[in-house]
């Protein structure tokens, strides 16, 4: 919530207390920005919300509040009543300009707020199997998850960024067999990869590393061989995975291993708890979970008749462990292929007594890479599927991250590689970063500039448009965090850059013949620069000072 919105709420609260002797509950007054600028800068429907309490016509309530605010709000230029009782506010330019020193004082902290204070969120994203390279779907989820975490932290949430490593199960055995096959092939032996093995270039590279370090030690040795190749394959895949995520500026606070859930007894404990609460039954030699009773479309197997556990069982243990660590909301960012998995996981947690809304899952929809209007399926450099590293090395980390978070996660994304490479204003990343670099260039011409006491000369239309939009930044950040929608920050960045370019094109910034106006406009530019840099940082993108 912006400073102006906060002050308006306080003024309305005071007016209602004075007029009607009523103390309003927190959240009762809602301030919105009208879609039509002709309706003012801000609007509230408080008069309509008070109708039932005061037993009055909302238009009469609105007129009474209007009269009180006109007499008591020096920052408000005009108060009007519209429609069934909306109260609209048009602010004085000087009140909008007060934001400049707030931004300068807060600097890199401008945009931060405490709207999420007190809520503990465990955010899980990427969580790809350590059996191959991270592809485009992972890249979209990684950028989205990391940007979401940045926004949540900036909005006061206690958030933990977690990666769940699927290092147990048959896929690890297949990885070990695949690495061994490639290793043996390096010595001229004809060893076939398993039918469900991994055929990527990364497996060949891992085999080469093992050969360099161990020579032919494991060529004929059978005892412990599979275990060795599983562990080495896993270790080296994880090293590569972490290296690529680091390149992509994606970080995690916690790495949880599926195998550790077995080793610590958490999986057995989860099964015992489900059985003890009467939530399971046995049929045809298998152990079933009664998920239908909790919203699933059918009951699910926990343990198959051969004694093997299904994927669901350790996943339940993992989510229970998240709650045990004190987190009140769990958020998972999963691929589109996991969509059908959501009801059974929610049902399992509900059965264990957790609130239905304590787990939320955001689904990453499909990505299609496009170049010159044609779909790109393979990397020109490697001949393999395009990876995170391929994209970062081709078009850069900034462009890759920006394009992946610029569209809502639940929509299919056509990623235009040709556009992402352009060094023109057509490219939204270039457009935003160039705005920041241009401001820096202007500010370098006035290195002695310091914040002023007043910015009363900033009354031109394009100046007030910039000021108003800078005022909105905190509200945008708070909303983007609450809705887990970093694409809203992209929208903000584009409009802020557009407002700056429009202002810059219409007005002379440094005017030797008008030092007072020059200094005030420099203050406006500095506030714009800080806001733009902070917005870019919230989605993990750099703000260059020169381009």
Question: What features would you describe in this structure?
Answer:
This protein is of the alpha/beta class and 547 residues long. It has 4 domains: 3-91, Arginyl tRNA synthetase N-terminal domain (Gyrase A, domain 2, 2-Layer Sandwich); 125-251 and 375-421, Rossmann fold (3-Layer(aba) Sandwich); 264-364, 3-Layer(aba) Sandwich (Rossmann fold), CATH 3.40.50; 426-538, Isoleucyl-tRNA Synthetase, Domain 1, CATH 1.10.730.10. Helices cover 49% and strands 13% of the residues. The protein has helices at 3-20, 46-54, 58-72, 93-97, 99-106, 136-154, 170-185, 201-214, 225-247, 258-263, 266-276, 312-324, 342-351, 388-395, 397-405, 417-421, 428-443, 461-471, 473-482, 487-506, 515-538; strands at residues 31-32, 42-44, 76-82, 86-91, 120-124, 158-165, 254-257, 280-283, 286-289, 300-303, 329-335, 359-364, 367-371, 374-376, 413-416. The chain has a 5-stranded parallel sheet with strand order 7-6-5-11-12, with helices on both faces. The chain has a 4-stranded antiparallel sheet with strand order 1-2-4-3. The model has no long low-confidence stretch (mean pLDDT 95).
């Amino acid at each position: 919530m912006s400073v102006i919105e906060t002050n308006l709420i306080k003024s309305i609260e005071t007016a209602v207390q004075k007029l009607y002797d009523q103390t309003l509950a927190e959240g009762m007054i809602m301030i919105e920005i009208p879609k039509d600028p002709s309706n003012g800068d801000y609007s509230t429907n408080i008069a309509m919300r008070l109708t039932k309490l005061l037993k009055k016509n909302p238009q009469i309530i609105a007129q009474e509040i209007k009269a009180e605010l006109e007499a008591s709000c020096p920052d408000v230029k005009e108060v009007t009543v519209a429609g069934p009782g909306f109260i609209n506010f048009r602010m004085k330019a000087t009140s909008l300009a007060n934001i400049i020193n707030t931004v300068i004082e807060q600097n890199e902290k401008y945009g931060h707020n405490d709207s999420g204070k007190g809520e503990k969120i465990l955010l899980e994203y990427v969580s790809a199997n350590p059996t191959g390279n991270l592809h485009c779907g992972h890249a979209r989820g990684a950028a989205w998850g990391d940007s979401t975490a940045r926004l949540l932290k900036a909005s006061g949430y206690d958030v933990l960024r977690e990666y769940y490593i699927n290092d147990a199960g048959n896929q690890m055995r297949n990885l070990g067999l695949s690495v061994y096959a490639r290793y043996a092939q390096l010595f001229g032996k004809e060893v076939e990869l398993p039918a469900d093995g991994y055929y990527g270039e990364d497996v060949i590279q891992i085999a080469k590393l093992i050969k360099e370090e161990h020579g032919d030690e494991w060529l004929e040795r059978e005892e412990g061989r599979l275990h060795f190749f599983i562990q080495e394959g896993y270790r080296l895949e994880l090293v590569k995975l972490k290296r690529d995520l680091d390149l992509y500026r994606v970080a995690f606070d916690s790495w949880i291993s599926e195998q550790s859930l077995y080793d610590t007894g958490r999986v057995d404990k989860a099964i015992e708890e489900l059985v003890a609460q009467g939530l399971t039954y046995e049929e045809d030699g298998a152990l079933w979970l009664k998920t239908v009773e909790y919203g699933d479309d059918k009951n699910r197997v926990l343990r198959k008749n051969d004694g093997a556990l299904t994927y669901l069982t350790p996943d339940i243990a993992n989510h229970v462990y998240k709650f045990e660590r004190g987190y009140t909301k769990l958020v998972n960012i999963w691929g589109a292929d996991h969509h059908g998995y959501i009801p059974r996981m929610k049902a399992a947690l509900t059965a264990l007594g957790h609130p239905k809304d304590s787990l939320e899952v955001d689904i990453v929809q499909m990505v299609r890479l496009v170049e010159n209007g044609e779909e790109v399926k393979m990397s020109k450099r490697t001949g393999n599927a395009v990876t995170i590293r391929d994209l970062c090395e081709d078009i850069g980390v900034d462009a890759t991250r920006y394009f992946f978070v610029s569209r809502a996660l639940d929509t299919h994304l056509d990623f235009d590689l040709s556009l992402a490479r352009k060094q023109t204003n057509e490219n939204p990343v270039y457009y935003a970063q160039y705005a920041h670099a241009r401001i820096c260039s202007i500010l370098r011409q006035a290195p002695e500039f310091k914040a002023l006491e007043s910015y009363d000369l900033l009354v031109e239309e394009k100046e007030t448009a910039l000021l108003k939009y800078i005022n909105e930044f905190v509200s945008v950040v708070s909303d983007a965090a609450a809705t887990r929608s970093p694409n809203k920050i992209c929208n903000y960045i584009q409009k802020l850059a557009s407002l700056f370019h429009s202002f810059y094109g219409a007005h002379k910034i440094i005017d030797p013949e008008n030092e007072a106006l020059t200094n005030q406009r420099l203050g406006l530019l500095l506030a714009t620069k800080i806001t733009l840099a902070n917005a870019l940082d919230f989605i993990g993108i750099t703000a260059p000072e020169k381009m």
